[in-house]
Write a structure and sequence with these properties.
Length: 492
């Protein structure tokens, strides 16, 4: 199966084009061949999107929303089909794949509802017989760059608000997980979305992503990926005066206080740390634990980790699937060695699994370190794998300070039964998302998603806040006085 670009409502197959293999990370099976596109391919997509946007912007927003309702309906109908493909190409366990597809369905219906809102403001004018208001206006062609770890959810966070706001888009999915993008193109077609509103260009970030950022007709870039790459995107976009929305890395922590429900905390840590095999920007990478209950928590975590089954995510009994590729395995192994060199104590895990059923896949043992120094590399740098560090503290104030010490600010969590501690923590934790008595994952689509510091640049995916990325504010003044009135001058 060859995956070709979807441009202007048709599939673009070019003789002599380059392709690369899409592999199942659980067993190495080749699933498809995906196009490696050129700068010229990007230009074709942008021109198709630009042409379509002029008419799309004139479609009333409630009518644009009708397409999203239909897209959501088809996604719901195809949920299991999409989930199976997602697990095959990305590796996450099937339960999580179903949850991710559901997130896309939820986003379709949520953003469709905004088609009858897209609220602006009316305000009183300082002059007689004059009306003042603001409205949201579409921007034009937007470029979407999405990662491999959430190949459908993050794409819907970006594309659906762009659509309902009256924009058209060019989407570059990750080369590791292009099959969900292909499936979404089929769904766009099935929903009757006008040609050119949705365009998909497969390929590498260095070629396709760069071409999108530098293209003069792409007005917005919405990027999710690593902080290092995000900095480059921001720099390049800034040179071209584009609006750039970045959602990047995380080094998220669960704080467990001495009055916490430890059984609940262990459940939250396991789900946050080892769900998606730690390959979430919101994954729990640190556990900041009060010294009085550290030993108990360690014992309970070790016991619970014994029940984590590892294998192909299509097996309903498996809890931890593979990591995405060989490069990821090597990075995780490197950080295990760094932890050892820094003097952290390895309690369990720390090894690549390569025998028997694991021989052709990319599997790493769920790993737990203790006695980790808060300022060590193990505790400061993003690993993006199933590795957790236990850090001991003596107070809530110290826990908050340790939480805030990292260069990221995406998600944080506190387990405590003390309402005073909870309110202090939610105020002082410097992350874009805070959970109380839950892990660091599980954001819902109707609230803003994103973070501070090295995690983002002030914009947000999801919720009404996502519309700010894909709209411009337009202020409108209507003077029906029949004479020239000068604001700030003719006010007496």
């Amino acid at each position: 199966m060859q995956l070709n670009n979807y441009i202007g409502g048709s599939w673009q197959k070019t003789e002599g084009a380059a392709y690369t293999a899409v592999l199942n990370p659980a067993n190495g099976e080749e699933l498809a061949q995906v196009r490696l596109s050129s700068k010229e391919d990007v230009d074709l997509a942008v021109q198709a999107a630009k042409k379509a946007q002029k008419e799309w912007a004139l479609v009333p927003a409630p009518k644009r929303a009708d397409y999203l309702y239909e897209i959501g309906r088809i996604m719901k109908e195809k949920k299991e089909h999409l989930s199976q493909i997602l697990t095959k190409e990305m590796g996450k366990v099937i339960e999580e794949a179903r949850g991710e597809v559901q997130e896309g369905i939820d986003m379709a219906f949520y953003m469709a509802g905004e088609g009858r809102r897209l609220f602006g403001e009316t305000v009183p004018s300082e002059l007689q017989n004059k009306f003042a208001m603001s409205v949201r206006a579409p921007i034009g062609v937007v470029g979407l760059i999405t990662p491999w770890n959430f190949p459908v959810a993050i794409a819907t966070w970006k594309s659906f608000p762009a659509i309902v706001a009256g924009n058209t888009f060019v989407w570059k999915p990750a080369t590791e997980t292009p099959m969900l993008a292909y499936e979404m193109a089929l769904i766009f077609e099935g929903a009757g979305l006008p040609k050119g509103v949705a365009n998909i260009v497969f390929g590498t970030g260095s070629v396709v992503g760069t071409a999108m950022i530098e293209h003069p007709d792409v007005r917005v870039i919405s990027f999710t990926g690593s902080t290092e790459t995000g900095r480059s995107v921001a720099e390049a976009g800034g040179r071209h005066l584009k609006k750039v929305s970045l959602e990047m890395g995380g080094k998220n922590a669960v704080i467990v206080m001495d009055d916490a429900d430890l059984e609940l905390a262990v459940e939250g840590i396991l789900w946050s740390a080892f769900g998606t095999t730690g390959q979430r920007c919101t994954a729990c990478s640190r556990v900041i634990v009060h010294k009085d209950i550290k030993k108990d928590l360690e014992e309970k975590l070790l016991a619970a980790m014994e029940g984590l089954t590892i294998g192909d995510g299509l097996d309903e009994s498996v809890k931890v699937g593979p990591v995405i590729n060989e490069k990821a395995l090597k990075k995780i192994q490197k950080y295990v060695e760094i932890g050892r060199e820094e003097g952290a104590q390895l309690l369990v895990g720390g090894n690549v699994l390569s025998d028997g059923n694991y021989a052709n896949g990319h599997f790493f043992e769920p790993t737990l370190f203790t006695n980790v120094k808060w300022d060590s590399r193990l505790a400061q740098e993003e690993i993006f794998g199933p590795v957790v560090s236990l850090i001991e503290v003596e107070s809530l104030e110290e826990a908050i300070e340790v939480n805030n010490s990292v260069p990221y600010g995406l998600s944080s969590s506190i387990f405590s039964q003390d309402v005073n501690k909870v309110f202090q923590a939610q105020r002082d934790l410097d992350t874009g998302i805070v959970y109380v008595n839950a892990g660091t994952t599980g954001a819902e689509i109707h609230l803003p998603f994103g973070g501070t510091k090295g995690t983002g640049n002030g914009h947000r995916d999801s919720g009404v806040a996502a519309l700010d990325v894909f709209t411009e504010w337009k202020s409108i003044y209507i003077d029906y006085s029949g004479k020239l009135q000068r604001a700030q001058i003719d006010t007496e």
